[in-house]
Amino acid sequence: MSEKAKFEKRIIVSYARAIFELSVKMNLVEKIQKEFSLIIDLIVQNPKIKKVIIVPILKTSEKNALIEIISSDYNLSHIMKNFLLLLIFNNRFAMIIEMAKYFNLLSSSEKGEKNIEITSCFGLGSEEMASVQKTLEKMYGCKIHIIEKISPEIIGGLIMKDGTKMYDSTILNKIKRLELLSKQEIYTSRVE
Question: Fewer CB near the last or first residue (10 Å), C or N of the chain?
Fold first, then answer.
C-alpha cells in the first residue's frame, strides 16, 4: 500500500469513527446509517452531485448551499448535515463512500455482526448465497452480511474477505502460484 493510500485510509477511518462515536452517544446509529445510504444512492444515481461538491472551482458557500438543500429535502439529521459540511470544508467529500463503508463496518461490529465480502466470477445464485451465509454464520457464530462482488477476471472460484483476512480459491490465484513455482524451479535449476 502506498503512503498516499495509507494516509487516505487513516483519514477515512478517523472521520468514520468520529461520526460513529457521536451517533452512538446520541443513539442515532441506525438513522445515520440510513442517511449514509441515502447520500450514497444520491451520488450513484446522480454523479454530478459529487462532481459539483468536489470540484475546486466552486466556492465553499455554493457547496454548502447544495448540502443545505439536500439536507432539507431529505430531512437529514443535524449530525449528518454538519458532517457533510465538515467534509466540504476540509476537502474530504470525495472519500464519503469509503467513510460510509467503514461506518457500516463499525456498526455491524458493535451489533456483533460481521461483513464478509465475497467475489466470484459470475455471481452466486440465491441458493448458493444462502448456503454460503449459513456456513459462515456457523463458522463465525454471529450474523453475517455478505457483500457480493463480481469479477470475471478471476476465471472461477471465490475470494472471501473478512476485514483484514482474505481467502482466495480462484483459478487466477492458482495460475499465479503455479507461475511463481515454475519461475522458482527455473531459477534453482540454473543455480545448481
Answer: C
